[in-house]
């Protein structure tokens, strides 16, 4: 205790808080409260939360509530939870509900209403608990729906269960709909579930269609489900198109399914439907047709299947066409990893030397493979180049003097970056070459750099539309950002050279 006392006098809030624990254990509650007040005077929010819990245990309940109130006002939601838990344990349910009302007003209704309903149910106040369940369902809380079913059975109102399910389904929340389908395995429940979902779907609730189809296929078979979907489609319900395409494809009616995948694409589902059509054709062995649909999906923006499409070019022995397609795709979508896909096409065709050249030196503007570049200082004579300060010029000179394949790749990247007409595409290609060199040295970087530094180095390449192209990539930046990445990567490569020489 002497150590705790001295530390507390030096404003050590941890010592003051911990010093209260043995005092509570021996029931010296007033002394414990004094220690906790000392801690609270200078405590950070998480220490004050701890102090409030101990103060409650020491009998200073109202003071503890005041501290939790201060934390809650400052936006610390854990204080609201701890205050609720303490009040409920003390039987002060109405006060605990006030705290949950506060949480709901702050946008946490999904949790708050379910928690409030549970407290009321535990206290035997079932009617009030059902009212809170109702509010929880409106906020999208699955637990509230579960609890409501139990309370309805406990209060003799089980016949109202499906009315409550209907209310939940009408919110359009897919979690409720999935719950409804899972709970309908019993034949009677399945019939009621299907009737409810069909009624809602026919009334215009599109989100219920897919769930109704799941139950219908399980209960009545594909033909019944398909007939209902075709009826919806005839009435202009585009939501039925996808399930029709799926069912007809699974039945082996491929050409019919293609018609519906196309209608899906035309109705706004875009490349997702085009991709599914391609996959359907590929599974059926109709590879040439599948390739056409894959290409259409990429053209519509599905850059994640560039590699798959390239692989199919190679499988069909359409090598030159595939490499050209990869180049055009890289140009149209700034999809730098299309270069990797072109390399893989050449490798699958056993054209290893061409693949190696393409991997190391990239494309010329006309789509041909760039030859090895020599951009040592002597070759700069007579050429118009972008000039820079002396420090960066030194980095360029040292990098250009490297021997072997690494030197060739560095000189190619420098040549791309410094060219008279170098624009965004050329600079991005230069950065891709450098990122490839760094990837090969990743183990060295992990061992020599701080973990966060190594992660940030590759985070830029992986998340800023350099090595990958997908909807998560950040693209809204100017060409100056590529300049910064180029110099950063080039300097890091030189650093790895020096680290490797140690």
Which properties best describe this structure?
502 residues; mainly alpha; disordered N terminus
Chart the SSEs and their pairings.
Layout: H1 2-9, H2 13-25, H3 29-42, H4 45-57, H5 61-73, H6 77-89, H7 93-122, H8 126-138, H9 142-154, H10 161-170, H11 174-182, H12 187-202, H13 209-219, H14 222-234, H15 241-250, H16 254-269, H17 271-283, H18 287-299, H19 306-315, H20 319-333, H21 338-348, H22 352-361, H23 390-400, H24 404-418, H25 424-440, H26 442-448, H27 451-463, H28 479-501
Helix pairs in contact: 1-2, 2-3, 2-4, 3-4, 4-5, 5-6, 6-7, 7-8, 7-9, 8-9, 9-10, 10-12, 12-13, 13-14, 14-15, 15-16, 16-17, 17-18, 18-19, 19-20, 19-21, 20-21, 21-22, 23-28, 24-25, 25-28
Description:
Helices cover 74% and strands 0% of the residues. Helix 14 packs antiparallel against helix 15 (241-250) and helix 18 (287-299) runs antiparallel to helix 19 (306-315). With 502 residues, it is mostly helical. It is flat, with a radius of gyration of 33 Å. The protein has a domain at 377-501. The protein is built from 28 helices and no strands. It has helices at residues 2-9, 13-25, 29-42, 45-57, 61-73, 77-89, 93-122, 126-138, 142-154, 161-170, 174-182, 187-202, 209-219, 222-234, 241-250, 254-269, 271-283, 287-299, 306-315, 319-333, 338-348, 352-361, 390-400, 404-418, 424-440, 442-448, 451-463, 479-501. Mean pLDDT is 78; it is low at 1-12, 374-387 and 467-475.
């Amino acid at each position: 205790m002497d150590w705790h006392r001295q530390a507390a006098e030096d404003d050590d809030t941890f010592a003051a808080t911990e010093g209260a624990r043995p005092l509570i254990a021996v029931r010296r509650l007033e002394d414990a409260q004094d220690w906790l007040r000392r801690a609270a005077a200078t405590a950070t929010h998480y220490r004050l939360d701890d102090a409030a819990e101990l103060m409650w245990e020491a009998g200073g309940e109202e003071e503890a509530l005041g501290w939790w109130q201060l934390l809650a006002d400052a936006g610390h939601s854990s204080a609201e939870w701890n205050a609720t838990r303490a009040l409920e344990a003390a039987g002060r349910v109405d006060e605990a509900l006030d705290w949950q009302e506060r949480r709901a007003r702050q946008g946490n209704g999904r949790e708050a209403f379910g928690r409030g309903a549970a407290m009321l149910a535990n206290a035997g106040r079932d009617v009030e608990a059902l009212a809170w369940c109702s509010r929880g369902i409106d906020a999208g809380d699955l637990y509230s729906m579960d609890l409501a079913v139990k309370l309805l059975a406990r209060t003799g109102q089980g016949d109202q269960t499906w009315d409550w399910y209907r209310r939940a389904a009408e919110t359009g929340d897919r979690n409720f709909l999935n719950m409804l389908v899972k709970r309908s395995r019993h034949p009677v429940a399945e019939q009621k579930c299907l009737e409810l979902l069909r009624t809602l779907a026919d009334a215009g609730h599109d989100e219920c269609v897919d769930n109704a189809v799941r139950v219908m296929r399980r209960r009545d078979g594909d033909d019944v489900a398909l007939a209902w979907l075709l009826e919806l489609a005839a009435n202009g319900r585009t939501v039925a198109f996808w399930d029709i395409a799926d069912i007809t494809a699974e039945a082996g009616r491929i050409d019919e399914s293609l018609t519906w995948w196309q209608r899906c694409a035309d109705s706004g589902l875009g490349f997702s439907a085009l991709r599914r059509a391609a996959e359907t054709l590929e599974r059926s062995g109709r590879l040439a047709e599948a390739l056409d649909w894959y290409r259409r999906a990429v053209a519509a923006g599905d850059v994640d299947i560039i590699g798959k499409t390239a692989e199919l070019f190679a499988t069909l022995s359409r090598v030159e066409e595939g490499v050209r397609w990869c180049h055009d795709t890289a140009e149209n979508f700034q999809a730098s990893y299309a270069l990797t896909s072109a390399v893989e096409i050449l490798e699958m065709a056993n054209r290893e030397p061409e693949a190696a050249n393409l991997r190391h030196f990239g494309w010329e503007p006309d789509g041909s493979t760039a030859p090895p570049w020599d951009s040592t200082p002597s070759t700069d004579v007579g050429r118009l180049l972008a000039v820079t300060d002396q420090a960066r010029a030194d980095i360029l000179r040292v990098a250009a003097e490297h021997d072997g394949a690494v030197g060739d790749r560095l000189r190619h990247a420098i040549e791309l970056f410094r060219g008279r007409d170098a624009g965004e595409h050329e600079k991005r290609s230069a950065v891709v070459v450098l990122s490839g060199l760094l990837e090969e040295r990743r183990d060295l970087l992990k061992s020599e750099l701080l973990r966060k530094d190594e992660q940030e180095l590759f985070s830029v390449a992986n998340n800023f539309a350099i090595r990958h192209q997908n909807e998560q990539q950040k693209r809204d930046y100017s060409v100056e950002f590529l300049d910064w990445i180029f110099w950063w990567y080039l300097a890091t490569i030189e650093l790895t050279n020096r680290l490797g020489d140690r």
